[in-house]
Structure formats: C-alpha cells, structure tokens
Amino acid sequence: MLKFIIYASKISITLSNKELNDLITEARHSNKTYKITGILLRIDDMFLQYIEGPEKDIDILYQKIEKDKRHTSIQLLDMGEIQSRNYEDWEMLLKKTTAKEINQILKNDQIDLKNLTPTNFNSNTARLILDSLVA
Ligand SMILES: Cc1cc2nc3c(=O)[nH]c(=O)nc-3n(C[C@H](O)[C@H](O)[C@H](O)COP(=O)(O)O)c2cc1C
Predict the structure, then answer these.
(1) Is 40 in the pocket of ligand 1 (CB under 6 A)?
(2) The whole model's pTM is what?
(3) Among 75, 74, 30, which residue's Cα sits nearest to residue 53?
(4) How far is the CA of 107 from the centre of ligand 1 (A)?
(5) pLDDT at 135
C-alpha cells in the first residue's frame, strides 16, 4: 500500500542554508533507497512537506522527522492511502517561497502573515499550496 503524509513545522533558528542543502542531499539519497518521493517547501521560516511511498517506510521516516532537532512545532496536517504517486519523479523536490506569495495562491483560506506558525495551515490550504506550486 502507498501512503502519504503532509505536515508543517517551524525551522530551527540555527539551520543555515548550507545545512538545509545538506539535509536535502541526504534525504534524496535515503529516499531513493526506500522509494520515497515528495516535496519539501520552505515558506519563510517554516517547512511544509509532503512524503509518499510504501506505508511502512513512510511511518518509519515520519517518526525520524518528528524527532529531528532541525525543526520544531511539527503539525501533522493529513495522511492516508493513495493509489498512485503525485511526485514520482522527485526523490525530494525543494522549493523556497514566502508567506506573501502563498497568500496570492490561497483565495478564501488566507494565512495570517503576522502570526505565522505551523498551525496556520490545514489539510486544505496545504493541498492548494502544493498543487499550485507543482502544477
Ligand atoms: C524538514 C525535514 C525534512 C526531512 N525529510 C527527509 C526525507 O524526505 N527523507 C529522509 O530520509 N530524511 C529526511 N529528513 C531527515 C530525517 O529526520 C533523518 O535525519 C534522516 O532520515 C536520517 O535518519 P537516520 O540517521 O536515523 O537514518 C528530514 C528532516 C527534516 C528536518
């Protein structure tokens, strides 16, 4: 069975650009081994990540991600079964954007720019954002 998980989190204040690049290089290497695909979106000082792959491997990866000190306030937004992959060509696509840009995508579901935390996102906003960025 193929499973997906979407979550939002806050980037640890000590994470540099180089460290983010190292993180993504390692993630891609490991994701290739476990046939995990997806997208990691950086929105200002937050992450929004979608991962998909075999159920067991997604569960193991998410447990590691939850304990990872490079981010905090991890907010699970959605998870479930999928019949086919949405990001089959991407061992982990990294995209950087801003909350301002995100609000141009979201019409009725604007996020609060002054008070931005992972809890500002819900499964609907997350899907709108991901779909529009990869379309
Ligand atoms: C925002 C974020 C996204 C991550 N995404 C992945 C990923 O897609 N794949 C992956 O293997 N590790 C990812 N990691 C790293 C894992 O948390 C973990 O460090 C890595 O799987 C190595 O774990 P291990 O040394 O216990 O095998 C991510 C970490 C963070 C903070």
Answers:
(1) yes
(2) 0.94
(3) 30
(4) 32
(5) 60
What architecture does CATH give domain 2-134? 2-Layer Sandwich (3.30)
Distance (angstroms) between ligand 1 centre and the Cα of 39 equals 13
Coil, strand or helix at 12: coil
Q: What angle do CA 47, 49, 53 make, to 5 degrees?
A: 160
The pLDDT tens digits for 22-76 are: 999 999 999 999 999 999 999 999 999 999 999 999 999 999 999 999 999 999 9
- Tokens 């779909």, located at residue: 131
Residue nearest to atom 25 of ligand 1 (CA): 64
The phi and psi torsions of 17 (rounded to 5 degrees) equal -60, -40
Q: Are strands 2-11 and 71-82 parallel, antiparallel or unpaired?
A: antiparallel
Ligand 1 within 6 A of CB of 31: yes
